[in-house]
Amino acid sequence: MSSPLGIGIIGMGVISETYLQNLTSFPDVKVVAVGDMLPERAQVQATAHGIASWGTAEDVLADPAVELVVNLTIPRAHVEISSRAIAAGKHVWSEKPLGLERDGAAGLLRAAKDAGVRVGSAPDTILGPGFQTAKRAILDGVIGRPLFVNTIFQTQGPDMWHPEPAFLFAEGAGPLLDMGPYYFSALVSLLGPIVSVAARGSRSRTVRDIRTGPRAGETFPVEVPSTVQVLTSFAGGQHGTHLLSFDSALERSGVVEIHGTEGSIVLPDPNQFDGRIAYVKPLGVLRDGMTVEQEWIEIPSQGTVVGRGLGVLDMARAIAEGRPHVASGELGYHVLDVMLSAQESAAAGHDVDISSTVAPVPLMVDGFDPFATTR
């Protein structure tokens, strides 16, 4: 048994806390260094989580004990930091999206292949027991052959709670690129690649206010559509409708419904690692005056619930075992291509064909225990 895989994390923003909590609890990996453009932030997290080495991104990339870099920087820095990690001979796990444009993200995957290292891409919620249980149920035929899907994410927007929300309304974000990865990654891993999209987008206003934190009351520009509606066509013949909005007074998110020839199933919120899974079967007959009462059949999820960082652990084990990891860079690239195509469709007002594809996304290994020692 070899030693735990050495992990270096770059980017000590809000999301770093949950990554650190989880990655420092998995025996198959060891966080050996953390870095940030503000080294003092890295020092705070290193001290809080018992990590020996801290500093800048350069310090993490130069550390020989770091075998895999977890890239938690802002989206516009993803390709740059990931490329530098690959050039240093390290595997990469990137927060979503993989990049902000196709050429940079595709070049990242080519560089990784040439260097003999792996790339993984968030979200890793598709590795959670909720989604994995639902996927197995669909593959087992509980709803027959999937026909069409419906997803909804609608909220007033992250400016209601985030102390620095401007980047979420800037180029490379908005509800499409910020939340879309969760929904499209889940659907592609279930149904296969998407071949075309049609989309429409709008902005409720061009300037928004910061509502909380030390900068409350300041304004910032809205650079991208804050509501996007997307139609998708899948290679397998299915189609889908998707709403992604930061403009809704009605808070409703996590809606994923898949309708098939023999039933309909609701899946957990793709931004979570667990949740409700239930399906209904078609009604036998319906006559005037009859009450429509459908029985929901609940499916309990199977597996251990952890959180972000699960994809990093799966990568570490897959490297050791010589198998594909689930949340691959190729999946991340295809989802990026889908979202950029939707963005282009919304701007141009016509359908856009998707040029990329992705191989079938594997299920998690049976009996996957995050807290076991396997390396």
UniProtKB/TrEMBL annotation:
Domain GFO/IDH/MocA-like oxidoreductase per the UniProt entry, residue ranges: 131-266
Pfam families, per database record: GFO_IDH_MocA, GFO_IDH_MocA_C3
InterPro entries linked to this entry: Gfo/Idh/MocA-like_OxRdtase_N, Gfo/Idh/MocA_oxidrdct_glycsds, GFO_IDH_MocA-like_dom, NAD(P)-bd_dom_sf
Positions of the Gfo/Idh/MocA-like oxidoreductase N-terminal domain: 6-120
Key word NAD present: yes
Highest taxon listed in the record's lineage: Bacteria
Keywords for this protein: NAD, Oxidoreductase
Record flagged with keyword Oxidoreductase: yes
Name of this protein: Gfo/Idh/MocA family oxidoreductase
